[in-house]
Amino acid sequence: MQRSASFPSRRAVLQGMAALGGAALLGRAAAQTGQWPAKPIRIVVPYNAGGGTDIIARALAEPMSRLLGQPVVVDNKGGAGGILGTDAVLKSPPDGHTLLVGLGTSMMVNQYLYAKLPHNLQKDMALVTQIATAPVVLVAHPSVPAGNMKELLAYLGANKGKFSYGSWGQGSQAHLVGAYISKSANADMAHAAYKGEAPMLQDLIGGPIQFCLASVASTRPFIEAGRLKAIGLIGRQRVPSLPNVPTIYEQGLTDDPYSLVGWIGMGAPAGIPRPVLDKLAAVMAEVARDAKVQEQILSIGGVSAIAGPEAFRTAYLGDVPQWKALIEAANVRLD
Q1: Which domains are delineated in the chain?
Q2: Which of 108, 161, 191, 292 has a Cα-to-Cα distance from 211 of 20 to 30 A?
Q3: What digits encode the pLDDT tens for the residues 268-280?
Q4: β-bridge mates for residue 193, sequence order
Q5: 42, β-bridge pairs
Q6: Which pTM value belongs to this model?
Q7: CA atoms within 13 Å, Cβ hemisphere of 319
Q8: How far apart, in whole angstroms, are the C-alpha atoms of residue 65 and residue 40?
Q9: Rounded to the nearest 5 degrees, what angle is found at the Cα of 131, between the Cα atoms of 36 and 268?
Q10: Quick one: how far is CA 90 from the chain centroid?
Q11: Strands 164-167 and 41-45
């Protein structure tokens, strides 16, 4: 029987329904994005105020607020190696109003370092953007007769059991790489864990410890004053604030632990709507160009490294096996 011209074909009906469904999805996505942010945004920093991560988060807040039209407040929730603040974010509503600005330690490394966490970083966290890399530098007391990494390893091996190295906490990059150095040189160094960089550097200058890894910002004044000796940077690129200090990689030691660079990144609870995530990532790309943000990144010895969600996840997953291997080599496991 011939179909009346007044009735559409089944195919046309299905196409129309698909178009309507697509339009509805787009409409919902647009509505989700259009409603965000509907209230002030809270950036949780899982460390105490005054550190490098806190400085960067506060630098981000003003340009973010200007671009988004809502107040952006920074909330410090330190404790338990960044676990407490990270957990508070990951258990918040995934609506884009509660964000995390943390280090690679709290956003990646802790899942392999601690026997049990109250969250699953790979399932419960959405990666928004990497913000900056945060290289650290290996420094020694000026009395140590070594000017580069190869000389240092030889010196440590020839003086087994005589030296100590410091870190800013159990399981920190300073602890893990220090343990790797000790094992590589068969040096049997003792590890001294401090509550932060300031007391660690005081003891390094005073003499109780002989070596440590620390941030560029914290060590630079002492290096320039001759009170500490820079052995080399961790990573594959020099940093602008210490242009004359070579990387350990440059010195011919290409082991992965000497190339692993810490980073500062932004995360959100898993389930954040994709349109909100995309808008947030676009805003962060714009914020990264702010002169004051760039200035603060340099002030902590960092390097701007904005990367959107996909690029961030690729880099994140690429670092995972190297951090796992470093933790296993250092034989560090925390409760």
Answers
A1: 37-135+261-330 (3.40.190.150), 136-258 (3.40.190.10)
A2: 108
A3: 999 999 999 999 9
A4: 167
A5: 73, 98
A6: 0.82
A7: 21
A8: 9
A9: 40
A10: 16
A11: unpaired
Which 3-state string (H, E, C) describes the chain?
Answer: CCCCCCCCCHHHHHHHHHHHHHHHHHHHHHHHHHCCCCCCEEEEECCCCCCHHHHHHHHHHHHHHHHHCCCEEEEECCCHHHHHHHHHHHCCCCCCCEEEEEEHHHHHHHHHHECCCCCCHHHHEEEEEEEEEECEEEEECCCCCCCCHHHHHHHHHHCCCCCEEEECCCCCHHHHHHHHHHHHCCCCCEEEECCCHHHHHHHHHHCCCCEEEEEHHHHHHHHHCCCCEEEEECCCCCCCCCCCCCECCCCCCCCHHHCCCEEEEEEEECCCCHHHHHHHHHHHHHHCCCHHHHHHHHHCCCEEEEECHHHHHHHHHHHHHHHHHHHHHHCCCEC
- Indicate the residue type of 186: N
Q: Report yes or no: 331 and 119 within 8 Å, Cβ to Cβ.
A: no
Query: Residue 34's pLDDT band (boundaries 50, 70, 90)?
Result: low
